[in-house]
Amino acid sequence: MVHGCSAVTSFFFNIYYLVTLFIVAFSVNVIGKQTPKDESVQLTKEEKRLVFDLGYYLRLQNMDIKKYSITTPDGHILKVNRVINKNADRDAEKPGYPILLIPGLMQSSSAYCTSGPNAIGVVLARMGYDVWLGNNRGGFHPEKIGSHQYSTSMWKWSMQDLATKDVPTMVHFVASETGAKKVAIAAHSQGTTQTFIGLSREEHGGVPTLCEKVSSFSALAPAVYAGPLVDRWFLKMLRVGRKAYHTLVGYRSFLGFMSTMRQMLPNKFFGYCAYITFNYMLGWDDSLWDNHYRNRNFIFAPVMVSADLMFWWLGKGGFADRKCIFESEGSKWFDENFPPLQLYACGRDNLVLPDVLINRIMNFEPDVKDGMEVISLPHYSHLDVMWANDACTKVAMPLGEFIWDKVEDKHTWRQPNLDAGIKK
Fold first, then answer.
1. CA-wise closest residue to 383 among 190, 188, 249, 191
2. At what angle do helices 120-127 and 397-405 cross, to 10 degrees?
3. pLDDT per residue as tens digits for the range 18-42
4. What are φ and ψ of residue 353, in 5° steps?
5. What is the pLDDT of residues 136-183, one digit of tens each?
6. What letter does residue 279 receive in the DSSP assignment?
7. Whole-number mean pLDDT of the chain?
């Protein structure tokens, strides 16, 4: 009965919250200056199409995807995609080294491959890496053994489950499929959060055996310390106790009405709505993007996540309150088994604070700092690490170099051709 009353309340709150947020975002977007498209860039008719199919866009680059469904220990079905590079040398004696790409909050890993011919995932595949696109539980079409999408049991999960179940499940699957002893991980935003927690010491919620399966970890816009954006009005509305929070947003998916909107609205209009809403919420701009691909990027977001996960982020006593993903600041988070770390620090990122993380590692994490490489991107905001025009050179190139440098059994794998990554 309690859940029934909450369902009614949350239904109306979801509509009120989304409509209010969209109206404010639309007003700001219309009044504010919008970044124009680069008229020197001409797309073909096929490139201009907006299709809710990642394989379509990869086929434009003479690539494709192979889809896998894998099961976590608690029965959730994760959708993992392998990028198939049809341009690759089929006669090569050695395979490409495997990279697992993990997306940010409310995003799918399609984000790594939608921003044109030089999207990060595409560039890495051209270099010769074996690129795997990982996705967390939830997603576009949630599945769990013994549950259905509208049952509360489908949505009883939070950050700890992503860190200790989803990440290890994906890593072990990729290692098994490729025969690799270890796998490289590159993650963005929340993807870095769950990976940092999974790789941490057991007393901080980590998985003791995960470090030994990861050859390197590249963290794009690492979400460990909170920036000032978490205190904006529409997020502070949700900084209430658990009971009040669930009365407002329910016990199932967070703002699940958005997935219904995706099915109802034309792709172009949905992409625009998602863009202006997230633009307002996260405070970034698109001045560094090729805006021909903007709506394409946003038709693959948001994905469905649990109300419990968002309480971890936004609720009373959660990340937004603590300002850090770990509860204890006084002890070491990581041990000597932590893999080599590469951090991409965005200078215009107000959602998270990478410099605070760097200082923490330099002063309190002796087992990590010696293997850490920092890529400073002073003009980048939170999403520029994936979608900026020059992300192919400022992110994908150093990423490709770092991953190969940290591979221990190089003799087993085909050496990547970094010069072949970027399409001129």
1. 188
2. 50
3. 788 888 888 877 655 556 666 667 8
4. -120, 90
5. 999 999 999 999 988 999 999 999 999 999 999 999 999 999 999 999
6. H
7. 92
Give the span between the Cα atoms of 266 and 286, in whole angstroms.
22
- In sequence order, which residues have a C-beta less than 8 Å from that of residue 20 and are 6 or more positions away? 234
- CB burial readout 127-150, b (16+ within 10 A) else e: bbbbbbbbbbbbbeebbbeebebe
Residues 403 and 424: beta-carbon distance below 8 Å? no
End-to-end CA distance of the chain: 61
How far apart (Å, rounded) are the C-alpha atoms in residues 266 and 205? 42
In 3D space, the residue among 323, 311, 3 whose CA is nearest the CA of residue 157 turns out to be 311
Place of tokens 């690129």: 131
Tokens of 23: 């109206």
CA atoms of 323 and 228, how far apart (whole Å): 9
Contact 245, 318 (CB under 8 A): no
Q: What digits encode the pLDDT tens for the residues 279-316?
A: 888 777 788 998 889 889 999 988 999 999 999 999 99
Neighbour tally for 168: CB within 10 Å: 18
Residues involved in catalysis: 189, 349, 382
